[in-house]
Recover the amino acids of this structure.
């Protein structure tokens, strides 16, 4: 499907408006012929033949048609703008909905700046095409052919002389189109790179400043900015190469018309009035020729803009978001059977190897392991952010893949390591997963997460607006708000991925105690670096290089004198507690 067929699938929803606009465009284009024809008639009939009584109605018709034409043009311009805006609204909506359905595999490989470039610059190229370029093209084609027909009826030999130039214009237009297409595609790519860089720079501004890398960032920006400029210059060079020639050919038409037309008048092959009328139509040939270059540019820009948007709209999620007709309540048994996993963007690096375990509803599993051992990845398979490469994740004995994914995630909540808060009120951040949550329940859960006191101490309490990504809150406060958000969701399976790492041990111990109380009926997974966070768990697994190397309860693991025991000893040592004294 070419870009024009693709956009037509959206624009045809507004067929009514488009037909009306088309009728008005045709009416306007036909109306154009009135003024030059009457101009010629005034010369021949009023000035040369002395029929002065005809002048008033001729002038009245000229003014009348001009007024009607202006009204028509105004109306179809508004109609086209509406169709353009509506079409853009639909494409943007589809794109945003698509983004919501795409999985982590997509977001791992596509940069945010790239997506933003699609949602802004590319969208505008589409709007410009539908709202402006489309009717300009129709106008130009209509003007050109109307002029050819009318001018031929006035003097076909003169018209034939002018038409002789048009094949050259056709060839130039095609050549320009071919030269412009790759350049516009490169401009879009370059714009994406520039956008991504700026987006990352803004998101990472604290790191930039902390490491005083502003000069490096400026240098990086300058390079991309220069690349963008160069590509735009290349596009301008294409225009520079062809547009003056097209302009020149358009001007040549006037010279031919005057020279040859003058000769025809002198030799009485046509009247002066006819030549004036003929000359009056000349712009209807000129204008499309002059415009053709610009319109080709705009069409190529549109075509380049649609490529990435269509790629994004066509992106397939490996984990489709499907809806179900009935809601299946999850009780909380989680079983991993011979699970292996590697990330799609790095398939050479197996991350999890033959993972097997089972957790009963209401039980707590602790997960310990060195950094990069696969702990978060393991949890991401329960929430189905990814599916295992082989093996099965079973929830209540049923393969996780057989649950509608939104239903599953509705009952499995993860508090991620990298907490994200929206620039919204604390209240709206907390009830993000459960908009109907009872205020009493929210306060109770905030109490469990030890967040109630610091929230109510804030000037606007729960209505305090936090900055983007939770700016204005400490790391520990963000962690506690994120934990409250997960608890308010009241899931059957709760996953805490290093959720309390930023808290002091006393606060952590308090939260752990409260959590044990309220998660008695939930299956809970706790990823932790501190053994104190998981020692009460019903079972603990230790991961190393994606394999379970130890499993058991706290006491069983200590008795093994392995990795867990060593970690425990180190952590006690760090606290200045001798073994046996804890
Ligand atoms: N999107 C990804 N694409 C490719 N590899 C990844 C991706 N995410 C993580 N990995 C790799 O998978 C491995 C396990 O990562 P994971 O985040 O699960 O470890 P972890 O045990 O949770 O680490 P930490 O304690 O530091 O959070 C690491 O080697 C990491 O580099």
């Amino acid at each position: 499907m070419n870009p024009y067929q693709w956009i037509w699938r959206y624009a045809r929803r507004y067929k009514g408006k488009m037909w009306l606009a088309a009728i008005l465009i045709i009416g306007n284009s036909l109306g154009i012929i009135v003024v030059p024809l009457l101009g010629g008639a005034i010369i021949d009939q009023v000035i040369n033949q002395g029929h002065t009584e005809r002048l008033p109605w001729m002038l009245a018709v000229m003014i009348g048609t001009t007024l009607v034409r202006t009204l028509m043009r105004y109306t179809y311009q508004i109609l086209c703008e509406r169709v353009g805006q509506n079409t853009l609204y639909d494409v943007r909506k589809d794109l945003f909905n698509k983004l919501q359905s795409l999985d982590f595999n997509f977001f791992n490989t596509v940069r945010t700046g790239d997506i933003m470039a699609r949602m802004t610059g590319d969208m505008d190229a589409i709007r410009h095409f539908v709202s402006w370029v489309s009717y300009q093209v129709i106008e130009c084609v209509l003007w050109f052919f109307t002029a050819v027909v009318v001018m031929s009826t006035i003097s076909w030999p003169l018209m034939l002389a002018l038409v002789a130039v048009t094949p050259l214009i056709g060839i130039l237009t095609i050549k320009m189109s071919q030269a412009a297409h790759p350049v516009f595609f490169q401009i879009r790519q370059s714009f994406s790179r520039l956008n991504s860089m700026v987006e990352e720079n803004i998101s990472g501004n604290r790191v930039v400043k902390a490491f005083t890398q502003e000069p490096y960032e400026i240098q990086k920006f300058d390079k991309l900015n220069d690349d963008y400029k160069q590509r735009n210059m290349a596009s301008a060079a294409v225009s520079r190469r062809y547009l003056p020639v097209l302009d020149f050919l358009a001007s040549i038409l006037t010279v031919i018309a005057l020279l040859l037309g003058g000769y025809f008048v002198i030799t009485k092959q046509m009247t002066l009035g006819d030549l004036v009328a003929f000359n009056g139509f000349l712009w209807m040939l000129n204008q499309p020729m002059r415009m053709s270059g610009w319109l080709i540019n705009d069409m190529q820009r549109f075509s380049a803009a649609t490529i990435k948007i269509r790629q994004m709209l066509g992106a397939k999620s490996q984990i489709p978001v499907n809806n179900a007709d009935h809601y299946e309540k999850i009780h909380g048994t989680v079983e991993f059977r011979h699970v292996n996993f590697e990330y799609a963007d790095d398939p050479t690096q197996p991350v999890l190897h033959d993972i097997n375990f089972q957790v009963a509803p209401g039980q707590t599993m602790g997960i310990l392991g060195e950094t990069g051992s696969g702990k978060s990845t393991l949890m991401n398979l329960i929430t189905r952010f990814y599916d295992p490469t082989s093996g099965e994740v079973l929830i209540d004995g049923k393969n996780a893949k057989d649950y509608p994914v939104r239903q599953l995630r509705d009952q499995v909540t993860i508090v991620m390591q990298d907490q994200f808060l929206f620039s919204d009120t604390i209240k709206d951040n907390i009830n993000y997963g459960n908009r109907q949550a009872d205020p009493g329940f929210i306060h109770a859960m905030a109490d469990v997460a030890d967040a109630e006191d610091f929230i109510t101490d804030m000037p606007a309490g729960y209505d305090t607006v936090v900055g983007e990504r939770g700016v204005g809150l400490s790391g520990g406060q963000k962690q506690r708000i994120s934990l409250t958000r997960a608890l308010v969701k009241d899931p059957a399976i709760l996953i805490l991925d290093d959720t309390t790492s930023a808290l002091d041990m006393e606060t952590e111990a308090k939260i752990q105690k409260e959590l044990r109380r309220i998660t008695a009926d939930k299956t809970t997974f706790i990823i932790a670096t501190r053994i104190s966070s998981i020692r009460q768990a019903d079972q603990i697994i230790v991961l190393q290089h994606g394999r379970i190397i130890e499993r058991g309860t706290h006491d069983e693991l200590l008795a093994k004198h392995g990795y867990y025991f060593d970690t425990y000893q180190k952590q006690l040592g760090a606290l200045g507690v001798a073994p046996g004294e804890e």
About this structure: The domain at 334-574 is CATH 3.40.50.300 (Rossmann fold). The chain has a mean pLDDT of 88.
